[in-house]
Amino acid sequence: MSSQGVGKRVLRKEDDRYMRGKGQYVADIKLANMQDVAFVRSPVAHAKLLDIHIPEQLREQVFTAADLRNAGVKPIVADTALEGFRSSEQPALAEGKVRYVGELVAMCVAPTRAGAEDIAAAVQLDYEEQDVVHEMLQGRQADAPRVHDHWPDNLFLKTNITVNFDGVKDAPVKVSRKIRTSRQVMAPMEGRGVLAYWDSRVEQLIVYTATQIPHIVRTGLAECLGLPEGQVRVITPDVGGGFGYKGIFLPEELAVAWLCMKLGRPVRWLEDRREHIAATANCREHYYEITGYASKEGRLLGIECEATIDSGAYSSYPFSACLEAGQVGSILPGPYDFPSYHCKTYSVATNKCPILPYRGVARTGVCFALELLLDDLAHAAGVEPYELRMQSLVRPEQMPFDNITNKHFDSGDYPEALRQAVEAIDLPAIRERQKKGEPDGRLIGVGMAVYCEQAAHGTSVYAGWGIPMVPGHELATMRITPDGGLEIRIGAHSHGQSMETTLAQVANEKLGIDIDRIKLIHGDTEYTPYSTGTWGSRSMVMSGGAVARGGDELVKRLGHIGAFMLGTEPDKVTVSDGMVHAGDKSVSISQVAHVWYRRPQDLPPEANSGGLEVTVGYKPGRDTGTFGYGAHVALVAVDPECGNVEILDYVIVEDGGKLVNPMVVDGQIYGGTAQGIGTALYEEMPFDASGQPLASTFADYLLPGPTEVPEPRLIHMETLSPYTEFGVKGIGESGAIAPPATIVNAVNDALRPLGATLYVSPVTPHRVLEAIMNARGGDGTGTGSGSKMAMEEV
């Protein structure tokens, strides 16, 4: 058995260059005669753009929408075939109107970024401010200003799902809540960056960009610039984190690509952190009015919900405006089995920057709403929150299971995951500790959440959405080198998932070639097969599956040649440990490669003419997605005098199917959990009534650090998927989904003796104190959100 194959804790190959400072990012690439770009951005949220005043001496260094329009550059259009969807055209540079603070208005170029910023500061905008849609609920009102003048309202899309809802309103236990999540920022270590130039030798636009989707960016550039795709080459070097933010074709990429062709020299834009926080990287702003119905014993019977999502001003390419709202209705039921369901969703256009996908797309918000509701529903029924969930979760004997919205759960034991998590936290001991009280006067509470993560969903899911990135067969090209090494080419791209290591492990599992002799080539549309990219926790399932299938095909070809060299039949040999074996005789893959490349006269007459290079496509047996899942339980202490929340203990039980590299999985879960803690307690991107962002630096926007993130206790389960290679499931987003619900449930458990509860994230000290004061003032809801939240218990 290989010590480097699937299931082994192999050290990351990538880390050697990263730890030595040898990684190469867009900002590290410098070309001769390169110019830097700074953008003039809108200072207001909504205005008619009347004129752009450019000093005469700078006119050759400033470019506006008119320059792009005259050159035939098309706006970015990210549409869908979903019924009722309203299209928005996003120009690379605003023309006629600006719709959010930070929207691109003009592009300034100079030999240095500082010089370009000086030019941008000299450009003056003449505009006439318009009424602002600063908040999604305001945007739904009939008399709200129109973000897009030709729309009849501000709705990108409405959805409605109803299943067996008659009669459930008479359930003996009913609880209603209003729940909100705040807008966030993704904040990867590396921001966006793009460097473009025109290669006159090959008549090709070359674009270096930090992206998760190089092939999709190429398509977007070709469409907007009017170029054949063969004339566009997108190269993605190392990427310092993405989390969904780099899964979008941005107007900056389009503007810079056009400018390099206009000037005939390389042009670069590197996003600074102010641009990132205030204007380009917002996500996750949800509002739920949700009601739960249960039996008197505490079994979930039904959910009723109206969800509103703030989508910002535009739908970003390939698709963003309805990515959250379009999924909420179908994934809100989570891992629970209940008979009655009704959900409406509204995707609202506002005068804010577009909402982009972020790790745990839609899942984090729905988990927050549902799991907070379930805790209160359990208390209304007089049972422990743990007991209500155990009664209502999908059971292992029901797998595979089609839930109330026809999500097909492939495998798993959800009750067992929750049982292990609750056992690890020692719930009875915590309840006894709560009765005694804490010596320092703090209040302790325990909270939990169970989640599932649909991942690697494919054609059968996305074809119905009618968007420009429907995934099909994922391809891998694999080639044995003349000296017996292996090259793998894939179209997906790593932005921290350790794919250079884990895909090498998959190939090692099939061929036995040492992973140090396996090279992954990705991030270059010129040399890699087409792919919709890295998103939705799909890479190990899809690219890993393709590499596994490619390994199987290479095994056949190596075995055929090796058998001839060993004087036996192909069905008598095996390939393992980098060797072709026949009983006690063997030849190495290196020897086989030597024969194919350098001594073809020694090949069997019927050797495959394709040689030792294969391109293989892969789709799972059923491509509706894998369902990773888990249970999180947290113990927190809340200081009722200052509102501070401390996480005392945090337990995670997760099931990602077969773990290709458990160490890498640990890192994924830990990192996601840290982000989830930020969502729960710290991160918020606020706007005022004029649509002005109130955070623009990390002095205003608080990210959790080492002192805020405890070391979680992580327990693995491995329930194999019946549909994928090795039984793997996608888990890239899992760690980020459950922490907000888990932690806020724990805070509410701690505050329950005071009659205070919170239904908003993040739970800041200010909101905790507000909830306590509301409770002491006779308002039993204690929401801490600045408004009274509806409660009803029957």
Radius of gyration: 28 Å
Question: Could you give the order of strands across the largest sheet?
Answer: 3-7-1-15-12-13-14
- Give the overall silhouette: globular
The fold-level CATH name of the largest domain is Aldehyde Oxidoreductase, domain 4
What is the chains' assembly state? single chain
Give the strand content.
15-25%
Please give the CATH architecture of the largest domain.
2-Layer Sandwich
- Main sheet record: 7 strands, mixed
Domain Aldehyde oxidase/xanthine dehydrogenase a/b hammerhead: 20-131
Region (Disordered): 775-794
GO molecular function: iron ion binding; oxidoreductase activity
Keywords: Molybdenum, Oxidoreductase
Give a description of the structure.
The termini are far apart. The chain has 794 residues and is of the alpha+beta class. It folds into three domains: 154 residues, Aldehyde Oxidoreductase, domain 4 (2-Layer Sandwich), CATH 3.30.365; 181 residues, Aldehyde Oxidoreductase, domain 3, CATH 3.90.1170; 335 residues, Aldehyde Oxidoreductase, domain 4 (2-Layer Sandwich), CATH 3.30.365.10. The C terminus is likely disordered. It is globular. The protein contains 20 helices and 34 strands. The strands form nine sheets. A seven-stranded mixed beta sheet has the order 3-7-1-15-12-13-14. Strands 9, 10, 17, 18, 19, 33 and 34 form a seven-stranded mixed beta sheet that branches. It holds the Pfam family Ald_Xan_dh_C. It comes from Neopusillimonas maritima. One of its GO terms (molecular function) is iron ion binding.
Summarize the structure.
InterPro entries: Ald_Oxase/Xan_DH_a/b (IPR000674), Ald_Oxase/Xan_DH_a/b_sf (IPR036856), Ald_Oxase/xanthine_DH-like (IPR016208), AldOxase/xan_DH_MoCoBD1 (IPR008274), AldOxase/xan_DH_MoCoBD2 (IPR046867), AldOxase/xan_DH_Mopterin-bd_sf (IPR037165). The protein is 27% helix and 24% strand. It is built from 20 helices and 34 strands.
